[in-house]
User: Fold Phosphoribosylglycinamide formyltransferase from Brachyspira murdochii.
Amino acid sequence: MLRIAVLISGGGSNLLSLIEMQDKDDYQIDIVISDRQCKGISIAKRFGISSVIIDKKMHKNDLFKTIDKHLNNIDLVVLAGFLSIVDTNFIKKWKGKIINIHPSLLPKYGGKGMYGIHVHEAVIANKEKESGCTVHYVTEVIDGGDIIMQARVAVKEDDTPETLQKRVLLEEHRILPETVKQLAKTI
Ligand code: GRF
Assistant:
């Protein structure tokens, strides 16, 4: 059974999908860590999962060292809407054991500035016919690590960034737990 830590910064809907699909045969969420006050932390509390806020403003230089201290016995770190840029030493230490969910079909619409609604705005501005989401390993290259799983979503003529974001998010909720379940078989 894979013991995971989920790192968040926002609404925590992907965290919720991981909680709902949690299965003792596959994986267990041991801890939820956020880098700021956010709604996702209350979701962890509601389900009795241990959680901690390590405020990025108070931990400017030691954010990831402090996070790392909470990762005892963790097999996999899952970034689920975590907005801080991950520190190189932390990435090196967790290489192959840290994944991220991104709301586009990487390698398209990834990298600096491509997060949240900005991704969907760019997809619509470029009149793309399809978008989607990607679960990938985290490496030093932002959104550039090996792709593990993707889901495709058609872009409709009348889509706004917000309507597209909602449909992509539904697919994120499906493939993130699915990826973790898949990794539970191999890690
Ligand atoms: C998701 O779109 C995820 O792909 C991105 O941030 C968003 C987080 O949403 N990295 P939530 O906090 O899980 O609701």
Notes: Residues 8, 10-14, 40, 80-81, 101-103, 169, 172 surround 5-O-phosphono-beta-D-ribofuranosylamine (CB under 6 Å). The CA atoms of residues 20 and 171 lie 15 Å apart. The mean pLDDT is 97. The beta strands are 2-8, 27-34, 51-53, 76-79, 98-102, 130-137, 147-154.
